[in-house]
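User: Hi! I have a protein structure encoded as tokens and I'd like to know what sequence might fold into it. I'm fairly new to this, so please keep things simple.
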């Protein structure tokens, strides 16, 4: 078999497709990057008025997308915590992928947030003129700091490229990075815990928005803890699904199925904890808080924002995948494991959608009516840009970096 033109840059002994075929794949990704880039330019030039955002919907597709990918990117900090701090050894075969996915999710979220600011040139105001009473300031600092931690965790993987590793200084530097990686795993877990929680806490303190407002524990609304639990319940599932997708596309075995099943078991266990508190929170909100302010459960839903979203999140995408991931006979069947993982990821995405959009759609003044939000191309294009950006990073990482250190052994 002829070696690819860029063979010297590939990991020795790991076959890859020809360079022209790979470049064709990158060209397809480039089309989505160009589409999103054009609309980013239009938004920067004309302002947020070209989007579907208005006085009712200051948050829309971008914030929903950000919250969802940040939750799904939690596989990075949680897998790193389990691998380096709790020393669960089998996760060493998938932790590199978790770090890359986490880096993609957080850097992609920062790209979209740059658009959502409205005037990106003033985005530094939040750091220099920080409102210490705002949860968003804490979120901004934690996301920025955790992205730096993910970048540091990504560096040793880049330094292990076949050609770079031949340089003695880089080889030693990469080794030293691995030695101190438990430190960064601990810092990342600490930062990610608080910013995941603060994203939820931001909604929980909106006392003028009865759909989102929650009572709490000391100074933290219940949504603070629910957002953390939902993130650690879905992040490992996404990492497992991405690993399976890369295996399907490449036609190679990259991660042992027992490791993917272990990720599913971890996700299922955390999903069980999350669903327990989610159901209690929903019941207390519906029977306690809403009546106290003169509202009923049915008044929280209307039209497209119907109760079907709640039951889909809790039932179809919550309890069902929880059972599937916890029952060994189901979890150890690949097709059922992946189905449960997909439902898990959809569930957390629905949760972020209803907290972002349904919260704003619900009327809060006597003269208000239910509002309908439909994102337009100006919002979809940058979102697809982030997805294409993720595909680009994963494609380059799989081709040129030891993303799966056990690949050669599994395909011997």
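Assistant: Happy to help. Inverse folding works backwards from shape to sequence: for each of the 412 positions I chose a residue that suits the local structure. Here it is:
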């Amino acid at each position: 078999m002829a070696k690819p033109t860029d063979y010297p840059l590939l990991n020795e002994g790991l076959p890859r497709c020809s360079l022209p075929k790979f470049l064709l794949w990158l060209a397809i990704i480039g089309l989505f990057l160009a589409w999103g880039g054009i609309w980013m330019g239009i938004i920067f030039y004309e302002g947020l008025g070209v989007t579907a955002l208005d006085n009712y919907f200051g948050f829309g597709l971008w914030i929903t997308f950000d919250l969802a990918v940040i939750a799904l990117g939690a596989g990075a900090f949680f897998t790193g915590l389990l691998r380096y701090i709790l020393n669960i050894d089998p996760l060493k075969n998938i932790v590199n992928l978790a770090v890359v996915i986490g880096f993609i999710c957080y850097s992609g979220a920062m790209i979209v947030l740059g658009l959502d600011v409205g005037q990106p040139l003033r985005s530094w105001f939040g750091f220099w003129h920080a409102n210490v009473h705002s949860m968003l300031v804490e979120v901004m600092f934690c996301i920025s700091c955790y992205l730096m931690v993910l970048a540091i965790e990504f560096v040793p993987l880049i330094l292990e490229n076949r050609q770079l590793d031949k340089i003695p200084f880089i080889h030693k530097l990469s080794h030293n990075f691995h030695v101190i990686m438990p430190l960064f795993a601990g810092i990342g877990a600490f930062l990610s815990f608080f910013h995941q929680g603060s994203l939820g806490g931001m909604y929980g303190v909106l006392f003028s928005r009865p759909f989102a407002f929650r009572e709490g524990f000391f100074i933290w609304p219940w949504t603070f803890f629910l957002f953390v639990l939902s993130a650690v319940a879905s992040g490992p599932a996404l990492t497992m699904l991405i690993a399976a997708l890369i295996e399907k596309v490449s036609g190679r075995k990259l991660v042992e199925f027992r490791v993917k099943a272990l990720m599913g078991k971890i996700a299922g266990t955390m999903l069980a904890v999350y669903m327990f508190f989610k159901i209690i929170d929903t019941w207390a909100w519906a029977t306690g808080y809403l009546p106290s302010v003169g509202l009923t459960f049915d008044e929280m839903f209307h039209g497209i924002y119907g109760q079907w979203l709640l039951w889909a999140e809790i039932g179809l995408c919550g309890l069902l995948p929880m059972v599937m991931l916890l029952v060994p006979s189901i979890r150890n069947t690949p097709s059922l494991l992946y189905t449960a993982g997909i439902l898990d990821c959809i569930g957390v995405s629905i949760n972020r959608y209803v907290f972002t959009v349904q919260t704003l759609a619900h009327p809060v003044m006597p003269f208000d009516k239910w509002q309908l939000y439909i994102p337009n191309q100006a919002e979809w294009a940058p979102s697809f840009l982030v997805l294409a950006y993720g595909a680009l990073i994963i494609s380059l990482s799989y081709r040129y970096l030891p993303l799966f250190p056990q690949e050669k052994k599994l395909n011997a």
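A useful reference point when you look it over: The first strand starts at residue 216 and ends at 217. Feel free to ask if any position seems puzzling.
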